[in-house]
Amino acid sequence: GISGKLTNNPKGSRIFSPSFDAFGISNLGLVFYPNGNSNAKQGFCSLGLKAPHGSHLRYKLYIGTTERFTDLRHNVTESWGFVDMCKVNDELEQEEDVLRLGVEIVDDIDAHESLKTTGSTKVDWVLGNLKNKLRHYSK
């Protein structure tokens, strides 16, 4: 169970999910640090999404009932997410000794968003797929 992983993975050690496809993008993966990455506060875990270089995504990461939204715009690290995602013990399903975590892709930024210069002092941010975005962000 997860209790063993917490004990056997010191701060800074990570666990990689199997690769998966979502929202039309292949080779995505989750990177989970049960005791946090090197910058995490004591007692917090870290969670990020690993994506192919050049992917620009909006997504929600979750552990148990904790949900956080972010954007992956540049692949500057191996994954992008939250250093202090949550306290594992707050989200651990004690009786089953399991932790449920994952990602929900909200949108492909390149496919549905653009900036257009419409004058020397004006820029329009054109958002497509807005109905889907609002469905996620209105919670």
Q: Could you explain how this protein is built, in words?
A:
It is built from 4 helices and 10 strands, in the order H-E-E-E-E-E-E-E-H-E-H-E-E-H. It has 139 residues and is of the alpha+beta class. The strands form 3 sheets. Strands 1, 2, 3, 4 and 7 form a 5-stranded antiparallel sheet that branches. A 3-stranded antiparallel sheet has the order 6-5-8. A two-stranded antiparallel ribbon has the order 9-10. The protein is elongated, with a radius of gyration of 17 Å. The protein starts with a helix and ends with a helix.
Features:
single chain; 139 residues; alpha+beta; five-stranded antiparallel β-sheet; three-stranded antiparallel β-sheet; 10 strands; 46% strand
Outline the fold blueprint.
Blueprint: H1 2-8, E1 15-16, E2 20-22, E3 25-33, E4 44-50, E5 57-63, E6 66-72, E7 80-87, H2 88-91, E8 101-108, H3 109-112, E9 113-119, E10 122-127, H4 130-137
Antiparallel strand pairs: 1-3, 2-3, 3-4, 4-7, 5-6, 5-8, 9-10
Summarize the structure.
By secondary structure, the protein is an alpha+beta fold. The chain has helices at 2-8, 88-91, 109-112, 130-137, and strands spanning 15-16, 20-22, 25-33, 44-50, 57-63, 66-72, 80-87, 101-108, 113-119, 122-127.
Total helices: the number is 4
DSSP strand (E) fraction?
over 45%
**Distance, first to last CA:** 31 Å
Give the averaged pLDDT, no decimals: 85
Helix proportion range: 10-25%
Q: Give the SSE string.
A: HEEEEEEEHEHEEH
Largest sheet: 5 strands, antiparallel
Count of distinct strands: 10
Radius of gyration: 17 Å
Uncertain spans: none
Shape: elongated
Structural class: alpha+beta
